[in-house]
Design a protein that fits this description.
Four copies of one chain form a homotetramer. Chain A is mostly helical. Chain A contains ten helices and no strands. Chain A is elongated, with a radius of gyration of 23 Å. Chains in contact: A-B, A-C, A-D, B-C, C-D. Chain C binds a DNA duplex (21 and 21 nucleotides) through helix 3.
Chain lengths: ~230, ~230, ~230, ~230
DNA sequence: AATGAATGAGGTTTCATTCAT
DNA sequence: GATGAATGAAACCTCATTCAT
């Protein structure tokens, strides 16, 4: 903190952007850098450099690395949350199954649109620090909770098989996460959203394993209508 | 006369352990620390302290931080690999479906036995550095590959529904990963292995979503035997 | 925090010192650097360089710059505190005036021995941060308090003139501080302790200003020609 | 029609103040901020914010942080210098002792009027940078010099006791500094100027310590009961 | 004149790794 | 073999100062 007495070199100063635009720009750059290199291997310098601003500029907009990461995650989490619509059983115009499919579709579409964030959320967001891990866990748990409740409702309606709803929720979300991660990583286009939706839906609807070669699955059917 | 020799300083020198035992001990400590705090938040000091050795001693047994982590992952990966038995269609004594169930059971049992490593592998093993990420990806891809091939064989036999085998593999592995992670995190006992196996198996066999309330699912059956 | 993978140059490693010796050495170096350049213009690098250790080594022994400074101040404050002996009025062997003189002598001796710390305490210790300022104020206030109480006792005995004791304490301490600061700065030798003590004592005893030109002040005059 | 013009952004541009008024306003704000937080903990932003101008505007009026501080100190130093009147021995209308008392009174009055600057000068003005420290020392030394010379004159006249004049000057100034600092800090009102003057004067005239319990000091006693 | 976004030097701090004992 | 003090690269972050608008 000794008086620095600047003697600035030639460094041309970047044209000032409106505050919120610059913020947005840095966010967007950071998102991609995080997706590419992961949280821990990303330095503020990486982000600043990519954004074409000085390191100090970063700190005009964000508290620190964690803050910008947190911001990104928050935005994406709320995008996802908004994409999901609570399933209702009262509307005869919208069959439950269709609502399920719609939810899957919406989630897949969101993730295929926000590829970087999908990668970040599904792989890079763990082990930042205990507080952040906790926060992430809370979001995640909320989603599981939401799904588990819908499943319970579905069970009451005979639309969902018996079984611990939370466990079914884990299975579902695990499968979907992996599907999405791979789709995003392997560069599936946004047009594949429909196909993936169908695959996911079909998986949920009937698995893929045929336990008897006879093909009809009586005990399953029986389970469904006790 | 067995009074422990003291060096000039106060610290008493650890009794020399056979090299491999000491190595094993450090590995085992490291595993737990990594599981508890994650790779990045774990310092060599954490490990050394927990292992009751000096920081320098750590480096007598391991090249560096990455090396010990890598070692742990390798061991666990090969445990998992060994648990999985390539599915064969030729042995009439062992129905394919039973082999599948057995594989699931074995994986679940391994993970419930090696809880720390399960946590580490499923959450903490990403973002170490590009080389390591690649290596991990390779292992992971190998598993997917293995499963996808089995699924393709299964499809030929009419035991597995149509669908892109790789996609089915992703769905399966995603679901299983999540199930295991939660089981390990929530502290399921090893006795729950059988229940979890059943749940996973049942999920693969028939999903849980009933698309019609009539309950019989003819078109599905039809799909299976074209 | 990306894995650094050292490729160390040739840098010869300094011989390890016993922990407390090294700590002492750094403290002693820091004291002088602080005295020379002041708190704010002193960098950790300055201290490390002067101590002939790497920057990181500094942090093995001290939390941060504030901590080492605080440590130094604490030590010096308690040296001073110990030098001061609470004045007692009950011991006929030790006349109060003599005790006062003794205290002055002890403080001066301490400060002339610890020149660097005297400089640091009297000029450089303000404006570190609010918490530190508070702490320093507390120490300072304690000394004032102690003196003020002694003065009050003295007033009861007729040894000290009337007047608000706290104000007298401020005047005394201010005078002494300045005297010491200058003595230390101008490089008075430790032998001058006695002279300074006498000057200070004489100042307290009779000021220096003669308000009447008649000018004889009996006891003063007496003192002057014993 | 006097509706204030808004620039493209939301911020409304400050009505231009006459150059010297704005400068004065910033100076005055800076003085208080420096007094409150000290030089090092004061940022340009603090000052600009308090002054209600943009950071850049600050630099229209002052070279840099040091410059404004320096300016403040200079003004205060010359206020003090002006308050002090060189003591003359030739004017029978103005007894020397009265001139001394008058000087003390003037200094105290100035400091009680300029409380912030008093605080700044006495505590916050050290450790800015070597050049500034030197400058401050020079001012300070000038005051000591002035006083020391007056004291020497006084000694020649028999008004001041024997003793190294410079040392007496240090003692005097130290006592006065401390008295003033405490008066300002503890919030003494300007009305206390007279009391403080009296206390300081009395301290210089006779100290407070009675070296013999016989204790009567005629002229002192006389002073006390006029 | 005024603005405030942008800059980057200069400091702080951590911790994987080394090496003399 | 074991030790742990020492190292320094690499990151972090702040804030005085500049300059395009």
């Amino acid at each position: 903190m000794a008086a620095p007495k600047r003697s600035r070199k030639t460094a041309l100063k970047k044209t000032a952007l409106p505050k919120s635009e610059r913020r947005q720009q840095i966010l967007s750059v950071a998102r991609d850098v995080f997706a590419r290199r992961g949280y821990h291997q990303t330095t503020i310098d990486d982000i600043a450099l990519q954004a074409g601003v000085a390191r100090g500029t970063f700190y005009l907009y964000f508290e620190d690395k964690r803050a910008i990461f947190s911001d990104l995650i928050d935005r994406f989490a709320s995008q996802l949350t908004m994409a999901i619509v609570r399933i209702t059983v009262d509307d005869p115009q919208r069959p439950v199954v269709e609502q399920v499919r719609e939810n899957i579709r919406a989630i897949i579409a969101t993730c295929l649109t926000e590829r970087s964030m999908t990668k970040v959320l599904f792989t890079g967001a763990v082990g930042i620090d205990p507080a952040f891990d906790r926060k992430l866990f809370t979001f995640y748990d909320m989603v599981v909770q939401l799904l588990a409740e819908s499943l319970k409702d579905g069970q009451a309606l005979g639309i969902v098989d018996e079984g611990e709803p939370r466990v079914l929720a884990y299975l579902t979300i695990g499968a979907l996460k992996e599907l999405l991660y791979q789709a995003v990583t392997l560069g599936f286009s946004e047009e594949s959203a429909e196909v993936l939706t169908q695959q996911m839906f079909s998986f949920l609807s009937g698995g893929y394993l045929r336990t008897s070669t006879s093909g009809v699955r009586p005990e399953r059917a029986r389970r469904a209508r006790p």
